[in-house]
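Box 3.1 A note on notation
Throughout this textbook, protein chains are presented in two layers. The first layer is the amino acid sequence; the second is a C-alpha cell string describing backbone geometry. Keep the layers aligned when reading.
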Amino acid sequence: MSALPDDAPCEPARAEPAYAALFAARYDDWLAAPNSDATVEFLASIAEQGPPGPLLELGSGTGRVVLPLAARGLTVEGVDASPEMTARLHAKPGGDTVCVTPGDFSAPPQPPDIGRHALVYAAGGTFAELDTQAAQRRCFASVAQRLRPGGAFVLDSHLPEALATVGTGTQPVPTPGDGFVLRTRILHPAHQRYTSDYLVLDDGRMRHVRVSFRYSSPGELDLLAEFAGLRLVRRTGGWSGRPLTDASTHHVSVYELPA
C-alpha cells in the first residue's frame, strides 16, 4: 500500500451532512451500494490509463470505494464533510493510511492540491447531493484545478428520463446486513431536484432521514465540464462498463483535463 506523499495535508473532518450522524455507525449495513466491486474495477482501469499521481474521492464516506482502491497499492485520498463517516473509514483495516480532508468537496482546492491528482471521482450519486447548479459548476471548476494534465474526473448519475418514469415511488432498499430500509423518492421537476426519504427499522426502532438531490442531464453535465476546461471522453450505462442505451437508468461519465 502506497504511503501518503509528504505534501498531502491531513486533518480530522469537522462539518457533516444532516444524515451522517444518524446513519454513520450502521451505514455499511443499511445503505452500502451493491456495485462496489464494479466501481473499484472501473476506477482502477481509468487510473492505469492516466498520469501518475494520487486519486481523490469526493464524499469518501465510510471507505466503500477508497479502501479497496488503496488495497491495490494506489494512493487514494478523500474529501468528506462528516467526521462520523470519516471515523468509520479510519477504523477499518487500512483506513489509517487514507488521508481525508474535511469540508465541502465543491470548494476550491488548497494551493498544495492544485494540479496534484491524477483521478478525481464521485460515486454512489454523491455528486447530486450538490443540490444547486452553482454548487455543481463550482465542483467541476474545483476538480479541473486539482487534476494533472491528462487526468480524469469520473462521476455517476441518474438519467432524468428514467428517474421520472421508474425511479420514483416507495420501495425497499436491499441491505447487506440486518435491519429493514424503505425509501420514498419524490421528484420535484419545477426545481430540478428529488428528495429521498429513508425509513430504517432497527431493533424495533424506526428512524427517518431526508436527503435532497439535484439531477442533471448528460448534456448539462457536459456543458459544466466544458466551462471548467474538461472534455467528455467516455460515457457508459453503469460501472460495469456496459454501453449506454435507451434502456439505461444511470450513466457513468469520464471527463479529461486535456494534456
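The chain is about 25% helix and 30% strand. The chain has two domains: 20-160+216-256, 162-211.
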